[in-house]
Write a structure and sequence with these properties.
Blueprint: E1 2-4, E2 7-10, H1 19-31, H2 42-51, E3 62-68, H3 72-80, E4 87-92, E5 95-101, H4 102-111, H5 116-128, H6 130-137, E6 150-153, H7 156-160, H8 164-170, E7 172-180, H9 181-187, E8 194-197, E9 215-217, H10 227-247, H11 252-255, E10 264-272, H12 273-283, H13 290-306
Parallel strand pairs: 1-9
Antiparallel strand pairs: 2-7, 3-5, 3-6, 4-5, 7-10, 8-10
Helix pairs in contact: 1-2, 4-5, 5-6
């Protein structure tokens, strides 16, 4: 049995990596298989996710695109498609700012393949990111290219220079939390966000890579020299022993039924700054779960340091 403190980290290091590297890193959190990452592992990992339609993993990388389109009808037709999970702002009568995950952009093409703007976006993405879109091109029926629609990808630095109202909608940040399962149960209620979480269904904690033990989050509510803490510890030890015994004859997905909320869970939450404003406002309130506030209050301070116009402490 191992006891650790809760923590969080903003995944800045991923933002300078390719889309495939970002997706693999986040996806492997689910299976705790980060040791399999190497310089050549990202593309095969993405292909497997596409093959098995593990679409949630494809939400862990976004692109921001400026689209120049002089045809007002084409812009109206895009809105009429009601594209899901895309953030679209009209900069002027001819320009759109569109931000979406790889999954959202794939689904735009699948659901609206005949609209001019959808086709222009797909051509652009297929040329620059074939890993994510080549499988869709096999069924594509692209009409003649529309030369007056231009697409340009924004760099992260350009996104960070957007006015505050646009920045809030189009700047995404991933935060990795190490917390107990009760906290993750509350986090995943937020919408629209993307989540990838350590899976007790697939992780076998009796294996060497987990130290042959279950890890628990130190409880905020009890002092370590208190009777309540000792009762908590004894209960966690009993749960661990039951879990390890069940693994002798059962699968991890069966044995996990005896694991408690105090178990350590890693979860990545990926959202735009607007949604982070909402999450932090709710989860730093004095009415929030103290275990949630334990990580959200310092996260609020970090967001306020980075984006003072959007976050107040």
């Amino acid at each position: 049995m191992r006891i650790v403190d809760p923590s969080f980290s903003i995944l800045d290091e991923l933002e300078q990596q390719s889309l495939a590297v970002r997706i693999e890193f986040c996806g492997r959190i689910c299976y705790k298989s980060e040791e399999r990452i190497d310089q050549a592992s990202a593309e095969p990992f993405v292909r497997r996710m596409l093959l098995h339609q593990h679409n949630s993993v494809l939400e862990m990388a976004v692109l921001s695109l400026v689209v120049h389109c002089p045809d007002a009808g084409a812009i109206s037709a895009l809105y009429a498609c009601l594209p899901r999970f895309l953030h679209i702002d009209q900069l002027n009568s001819r320009q759109l700012l569109i931000t979406g995950s790889v999954r959202a952009l794939r689904e735009l093409w699948q659901e609206c393949p005949h609209e001019a703007l959808s086709q222009a976006l797909f051509r652009f993405l297929l040329a620059r990111h074939p890993l994510f879109f080549a499988d869709l091109a096999e069924q594509a029926d692209l009409s003649e290219e529309i030369s007056d629609i231009e697409v340009r990808k924004l760099s992260l630095a350009e996104v960070d220079r957007l006015p505050a109202d646009l920045l809030a909608q189009h700047r995404f940040l991933a935060v990795r939390f190490i917390v107990n399962r009760a906290v993750t149960h509350e986090l995943v209620r937020h919408r629209p966000c993307s989540f990838l979480q350590e899976s007790q269904r697939y992780c076998r904690y009796s294996s060497d890579r987990f130290g042959n033990e279950v890890t628990f989050i130190r409880p905020l509510f009890y002092q370590e020299d208190s009777r309540e803490f000792e009762l908590w510890r004894e209960t966690m030890e009993a749960c661990e022993q039951s879990y390890l015994r069940l693994l002798e004859t059962s699968s991890p997905q069966a044995a996990r039924s005896v694991l408690p909320n105090s178990c350590k869970a890693e979860i990545i939450v990926y959202a735009n700054l607007s949604q982070w404003q909402h999450i932090i406002a709710l989860r730093t309130s004095t009415a929030a779960d103290p275990s949630m506030r334990e990580v959200m209050l310092p996260l609020q301070e970090e967001f306020a340091r980075r984006y003072p116009a959007l976050f107040a402490v």
